[in-house]
Design goal:
Blueprint lengths: L3 E4 L5 H10 L1 E3 L7 H8 L5 E4 L7 H5 L6 E4 L9 H6 L3 E3 L6 H16 L2 H9 L2 H5 L12 E5 L3 H12 L3 E5 L10 E3 L2 H7 L2 E4 L13 H7 L4 E4 L8 H10 L4 E4 L18 E3 L8 H19 L10
Parallel strand pairs: 1-2, 1-3, 3-4, 4-5, 6-7, 6-9, 7-8, 9-10, 10-11, 11-12
């Protein structure tokens, strides 16, 4: 007999096909009348599939009395009330590790693009300005510069390895100094920003890190500094970031995430010293396939009574 699973957010077609063959699916994501779908499915659905963007708050969780596992297709899950799930003895899984390399690659890509003004250079060639006006203005060097990393977990350390290959000096900030790490540790983020040429945010989102990259941090980074964000839009004081970029108190930024997605503040679109990317750091065929497959595999392990692959609680 197939288990009933509610789909709050869909997976990719390949994994959805597997789920459709394995379970009886209830498509909340596609329902025209979501309340009616929920009323019918909630009493029988023992599993749920969500993403880190779905607002799975305490009140919504209370409407899913039969659910015993929530499998999330993202690594971040600040919109999901894990405490409420844990109180109900509901298992929760996410998709760590598999996206580490792609996010680290994106951080380096944004750093290079922002400091070497790649987008402006591309436009300079396409427009014919190179031929009409001569060489483009000079940019800032990356090799040999100082990189501060705010958050030194798996992704932060992967970024550090890439930066080391470019002979950059690396330091980090976190809740505490990590044992066995040779890189310099800063317990104060303003001090790290003052030291760095580039500051990369790769911390988790959520209340604990909201506004962590403050006006003071951005201004400490300075008019020749570069800020890179591959974490969450909530991590930075976005109005302060816009003001610092406009005024020249911050040199440049490379941003994969924004406070309001998918419609970020239009001020960013008018800034030549900002390189923008649509929250796509993990957006490769290989990584997204691996993330979605982890959801499938965690559900399979749960219903088979086996240990979960990537448990959170």
């Amino acid at each position: 007999m197939k288990q009933d699973v509610i789909i709050l957010e869909p997976l990719l077609p390949k994994q959805m096909e597997i789920l459709e063959k394995t379970y009886t699916l209830h498509r909340y994501d596609l329902a025209a009348d979501k309340n009616a779908l929920l009323a019918a499915a909630a009493p029988i659905c023992t599993g749920a599939v969500a993403s880190g963007h779905f607002p799975l708050h305490r009140d919504f969780i209370a409407r899913l009395p039969a659910v015993k596992i929530v499998a999330c297709s993202s690594v971040g899950y600040e919109t999901i009330d894990v405490n409420a799930l844990t109180e109900r003895a509901v298992k929760f899984t996410n998709t760590p590790d598999v996206l580490t390399d792609d996010v680290a690659d994106t951080a380096v890509m944004l750093m290079l693009a922002a400091r070497r003004r790649l987008i402006i250079g591309d436009r300079y060639v396409r427009s014919g300005d190179w031929g009409r006006e001569g060489m483009m203005e000079l940019t800032r060097r990356t090799a040999g510069s100082r990189v501060g990393i705010a958050g030194f977990g798996r992704i932060g350390q992967a970024i550090a390895r890439r930066c080391a290959a470019m002979e950059q000096e690396i330091a980090y900030f976190g809740r505490s100094q990590k044992p066995g790490i040779e890189n310099r540790y800063f317990g104060d983020l303003v001090s790290l920003a003052s030291w760095a040429d580039v500051l990369i945010a790769v911390t988790p989102g959520g209340a604990a890190t909201r506004g962590l990259i403050s006006k003071e941090v951005l201004e400490a980074l300075g008019p020749e500094g570069t800020f890179i964000n591959v974490s969450r839009g909530t991590v930075v004081d976005e109005p302060a970031l816009i003001a610092a970029l406009r005024s020249g108190k911050l040199g440049s930024a490379g941003l994969d995430v924004f406070l309001n997605e998918p419609d970020p503040d239009p001020a960013f679109g008018k800034m030549e010293n900002a390189v923008l990317y649509p929250h796509h750091a993990s957006g490769t065929v290989e990584t997204r396939d691996a993330m979605m497959q982890l959801v499938v595999d965690n559900l399979a392990a749960f219903y088979a009574g086996k240990p979960l692959l990537t448990p959170v609680n």
